[in-house]
Amino acid sequence: MESVDQLLQLIPYYDLLPEIIRAMMPAFVGCVIILAGLLLTILLLVWFERKVSAHIQDRLGPMEVGGWHGWAQTLADGLKLLLKEDIVLDTTDRTLFKMAPFIVFIGAFAAFVVLPFGASSIISDLNIGILYILALGSLAVVGIIMAGWASNNKYSLYGGMRAAAQIISYEIPAAIAIMTVIIPVGSLSMVEIVNAQQGGIQNWFIFRYPPLIFLAFVIYFIASLAEVNRTPFDIPEAESELVAGYHTEYTGIRFAIFFIAEYANMFMVAAVITTLFLGGWTSVGPTDSQVIPGPIVFYIKAVVLILAQMWIRWSLPRLRVDQLMYLSWKVLLPFSFALVLGVGWLAVYA
Amino acid sequence: MVEYFRDIWLGTITILKSMWVAFKHLFTRSVTMQYPRVKSTAEWTMPERARMKLFNKIEDCIGCSQCARACPTECITVKAEKRGKEEPEVFTSNGTAMKMRTYIYDIDMTLCCYCGLCTFSCPTECLVMTGDYEYSVYDKNDHIFHFAKDKPLTPKAIEELAKANA
Prior knowledge:
With 350 residues, chain A is an all-alpha fold. Chain A has two domains: 1-72; 84-349, no CATH class. Helix content of chain A is 65%, strand content 0%. The longest helix of chain A has 38 residues, at 19-56. Chain A starts with a helix and ends with a helix. With 166 residues, chain B is of the alpha+beta class. Chain B is 28% helix and 15% strand.
């Protein structure tokens, strides 16, 4: 936050502004920067998604818009969604229906407050950082159930219920897998977690207590896939059975907001994995040898993780509902408990 | 218990295998042909004798209407009249005398089923199916192709011809 503060000090007569505005200004500017960066990232990610899916299936994907390999295709599609008619059916619960996409998006976006993009590029270093992110993960469920219920459509409702069941089940192994990192750090603050991994690749948590935290990383990765409703855990929006799940009735800009929220969630989850297991903004070498700025390192790590998510999406089929629950409660949960016990024992006695 | 761990092991191994397959395909050459830019590649070209748009070389057409009769979808309309005895004789490129003047020869390509029966029945081999497949239009009527160049003789023209011969 200090860097945004310093930036604002450059504005002439900034000190003459009222105290209350100066107090809110850094947060506001930070939010604008993150929102703009997020939207640009989503444009990039949607293009990546289409390209990765196309090339895995031996296709080319978008090639026309914008000249070079169709890089502007997402821009064109976003524009199309903006211009489309915003249909709100008479049978829907109008207030909830209109509110739902924004709540889902807020759930995704508010988590960016505690993401440590760099040593000083963080909006707010809350001392309960990771707990805050876990709590916001549940806010998205509220929005999704809202969308499913308000649409007054059986497919939407099924999608909403499935999403709720899935996200709630997978939050437990995810939270417990995170515990394996919290134990050695002794703090929930995101900056503290990254600081504990300073000093080169061997200090990243993914390589500590081998292979315990690596397995926790795998568990958290699987659980996070389920939390952002991506294949193989996309049963809430399973297009072959539920039309489109909870956003069946949404059109135009409201659908676009759901779409943006999904990709924002993907980035958020990848950023959390980067922070917890892959050393956050620290580069591969020792701390003093870092040449690339922290935010860029962080961003590259997150995007690589998202590419891995896409890769998994296009290689695996969708799980059945009972298989999904089996994986969460009978496989991931016991394993994550065992890992926490193992890491705890090692942290205390070794 | 053993089954539980075996299931997890098998699941992990098969997931990794399928991911490896997907990864290999990420870097294989794609099979997509960028159609309007690339019309044929080493792997695929349009077959040499593919039956596409119909074309009638009207200079050789004797107006016999056999193509119209052969057509199962009735997409060919031929109207011809007898040339008068007083008119100068006209020959096709292989020397057949043209006894008829074709003044309407229309092919409606929206009806054509590309069977090619009309081309087999053509005695002077003037009706052929070409390789041209890019002839989309905005108006359906533009898909009716008119080949005839001659006009039916008006009574006045007949009189003039008779005078010239006399």
